[in-house]
Amino acid sequence: MDLYGENYVLTVDIGTTTIRSVLYDSNCKERGSYQEKVNTIYSTGNDDEVLVEIEPEQLFQQFLRVIERVYKTLPPNAHVNVGLCTQRNSIVLWNKKTRKEETRIICWNDKRANKTCHQLNNSFILKGLNIAGGVLHFFTRKNRFLAAQRLKFLGGMVSHRLIVTINRSEKLKRMKAEGDLCFGSLETWLLMRSSKSNTLCVEASNISPSGMFDPWIGAYNHMIMKIIGFPTDMLSPIVDSNLSDMAKKPIIERSHIGSEMTISSIIADQQAAMFGCGTWEKGDVKITLGTGTFVNVHTGTTPYASMSGLYPLVGWRINGETDFIAEGNAHDTAVILHWAQSIGLFNDVTETSDIAMSVEHSNGVVFVPAFCGIQTPINDETACSGFLGIRPDATKKHMIRAVLESIAFRVYQIYSAAESEVYVNKNSPVRICGGVSNNNFICQCIANLLGRPVERMTKSDHVAARGVAMLAGYSQGLWNKEQMKQLVTIDDVFTPNLESRKGLLRSFEIWKKAVDRCLGFYQ
């Protein structure tokens, strides 16, 4: 087939466990892909906290390599634009003069700021802010002040991990004082490394979960940053997901891969997955099961102030117009399966669905997935993981089933919190993606618990990459929203079994008791 002269979008999906490039043609059909495993480094910090880091030079070379491997499959004069989707809230600091990194990439699930956040959440400053927000909301009825009433700092936010990282290093404190220190999330850092000519910026969906962004004004929340002592002089300007508000689109220099390439769109990984699932209307629901679990509900053109720990995020911002989502998450999903495999519960993760289905129930065994604490809707970063209810007749099969059920239970717990607060359209499908969604047992459990059909996306682990390609093509006029609906493809549909649902809900109630016993363990 002659590919000469066509328009292409080459997307790069930079995740916590995998970095991949995927090539799409002008009909958004996948024409090639290449991926590598990201080497994520786990270690213990000063206060026995879990540090999660990535070597920046290694990741940048992987970034160039995955692009080059796919780019080489094209004819010389093909028209290619690059789209990036990146893991959110992972940061790196570098020297402004030398452009050399001063830290490793500090990942979104790194726990170095947990103690600081716990202290701040119990401080008079935050309690005063919460009270002020409540009073202002009472008189104005503005949701922005309701959010201030419920504000709680989380270790996964950028703000406190950056402050803690700087304060622990005399060199970084000196560089900051001298104006030589820069920081950025992954997209900002990649722009810095890709070309000296690029204007440093942060993309709207990436900055929105950082703890520094106010979705009600669409800009940085300088008041909060002043209260916590954040170095606002280090901030980069916020831009649209399709980069339409940049005077000059960023590039990847010719020196890196032999050809200059234009970056035409950037979006955060979960928002890219939501776009790729076709969940573009108010009330649509997307579930991602990857390194973590993410449940996203489209809330339309206004952010939502949650009472149960859902986070109001920018879904995407195209030509200055913003779609918002509410998000609940659990940090431990794929990592739980990797751990279970490492201790010998099973040999091959692809066999776990059949193993779980080979027993009628978990024999009373339950598992609490909380290596990084429990997030939405409980938000207890001092919770612990554990198997409970183990009896002499418990087997590996029962334990495997308990682990898989725990992933489904966390989804249901988050979904229930979302359903109680925001509008969920029961007439639109729940769509699921991510590598762990290839497990049929987990998907069926989720459908049973939700009492709704769950549609699994085709090539479920490529959905984020496809989402940024669709966004790039949509922004460039390759297809409109109606045409994009034809680009969304479903691999399988899981229909709820109402009889199985009864037993699963009973197990869920037992599991919630186990969760209660694991809360506050590390206080």
Automatic annotation (TrEMBL):
Cited SUPFAM superfamilies: Actin-like ATPase domain
GO BP, sorted A to Z: glycerol catabolic process; glycerol-3-phosphate biosynthetic process; triglyceride metabolic process
Presence of keyword ATP-binding: yes
GO molecular function terms attached to this record: ATP binding; glycerol kinase activity
PROSITE patterns according to UniProt: FGGY_KINASES_2
Pfam (any one): FGGY_C
Pathway the protein takes part in: Polyol metabolism; glycerol degradation via glycerol kinase pathway; sn-glycerol 3-phosphate from glycerol: step 1/1
Main localization, broad class: cytoplasm
Cytoplasm keyword on record: yes
GO CC annotations on file: mitochondrion
Subcellular location: Cytoplasm
Keywords for this protein: ATP-binding, Cytoplasm, Glycerol metabolism, Kinase, Nucleotide-binding, Transferase
Assigned EC number: 2.7.1.30
Family: Belongs to the FGGY kinase family.
PANTHER family the UniProt entry points to: GLYCEROL KINASE 5-RELATED, SUGAR KINASE
Role summary: Skin-specific kinase that plays a key role in glycerol metabolism, catalyzing its phosphorylation to produce sn-glycerol 3-phosphate. Involved in skin-specific regulation of sterol regulatory element-binding protein (SREBP) processing and lipid biosynthesis.
Protein name (record): Glycerol kinase 5
Annotated source species: Caenorhabditis remanei (Caenorhabditis vulgaris)
